[in-house]
């Protein structure tokens, strides 16, 4: 597997509890490099676009309101097999199902307030990186 880039969000529940550094350390300990990082707060329209794939799900409104409730930290992570590696470090969507040592097991509050987002495939990683970062912000 080649070197890949993936997109990550440290979500409002985590920024609010001052866990940005603790979560970034988990990425770095796993071998992922943080090659871009910024703290922003999304508008509702941006959250609805970002999570558009979930627009028909019953939790969509709650998800978008949560994602704009506090600042978030958006990051690009790079490394060998970065997309799958990040999903592994994140743990299962529901922290009750997440493996020991994962970010969601250690930090998530619930299936909704689950501390991190990570891209699930090369196509979504490319789309999500481009949604939040310009070419000028992406240095090697
Ligand atoms: P993941 O974030 O692990 O990729 P997903 O893409 O299926 O999971 O869902 C996106 C987010 O939506 C997830 O991180 C939290 C929220 N979510 C998913 N399922 C939910 C549910 N059953 N109830 C409340 N929120 C949910
Ligand atoms: Mg997902």
UniProtKB/TrEMBL annotation:
From the UniProt record, give one GO term of the biological process aspect: UTP biosynthetic process
Q: Which residues bind ATP?
A: 11, 59, 87, 93, 104, 114
Catalyzed reactions per annotation? a ribonucleoside 5'-diphosphate + ATP = a ribonucleoside 5'-triphosphate + ADP; a 2'-deoxyribonucleoside 5'-diphosphate + ATP = a 2'-deoxyribonucleoside 5'-triphosphate + ADP
Query: Which PROSITE patterns does the UniProt record give?
Result: NDPK, NDPK_LIKE
| GO function term, MF aspect, one | ATP binding
What is the required cofactor set for this protein?
Mg(2+)
Active site residues of this protein: 117
Query: Which CDD domains would you find in this protein's record?
Result: NDPk_I
User: Mind naming one GO cellular-component term on file for this protein?
Assistant: cytoplasm
The protein's Enzyme Commission number? 2.7.4.6
List UniProt keywords, sorted A-Z.
Answer: ATP-binding, Cytoplasm, Kinase, Magnesium, Metal-binding, Nucleotide metabolism, Nucleotide-binding, Phosphoprotein, Transferase
Please state every residue range assigned to the domain named Nucleoside diphosphate kinase-like.
3-140
Location relative to the cell? Cytoplasm
Q: Which family does it belong to?
A: Belongs to the NDK family.
Please describe what this protein does: Major role in the synthesis of nucleoside triphosphates other than ATP. The ATP gamma phosphate is transferred to the NDP beta phosphate via a ping-pong mechanism, using a phosphorylated active-site intermediate.
Which HAMAP family did the record assign?
NDP_kinase
Q: How does it assemble?
A: Homotetramer.
Q: What is this protein called?
A: Nucleoside diphosphate kinase
User: Origin organism of this chain?
Assistant: Falsihalocynthiibacter arcticus
């Amino acid at each position: 597997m080649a070197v890949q880039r993936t997109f990550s969000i440290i979500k409002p529940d985590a920024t609010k509890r001052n866990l940005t550094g603790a979560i970034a350390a988990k990425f770095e300990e796993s071998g992922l490099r943080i090659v871009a990082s910024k703290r922003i707060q999304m508008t509702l329209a941006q959250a609805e676009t970002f999570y558009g794939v979930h627009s028909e799900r019953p939790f969509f409104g709650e998800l978008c309101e949560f994602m704009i409730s506090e600042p978030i930290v958006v990051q690009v992570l790079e490394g060998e097999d970065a997309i799958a590696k990040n999903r592994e470090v994140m743990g299962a969507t529901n922290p009750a199902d997440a493996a020991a040592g994962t970010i969601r097991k250690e930090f998530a509050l619930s299936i909704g307030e689950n501390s991190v987002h990570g891209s699930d495939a090369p196509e979504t990683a490319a789309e999500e990186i481009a949604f939040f970062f310009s070419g000028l912000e992406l240095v090697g």
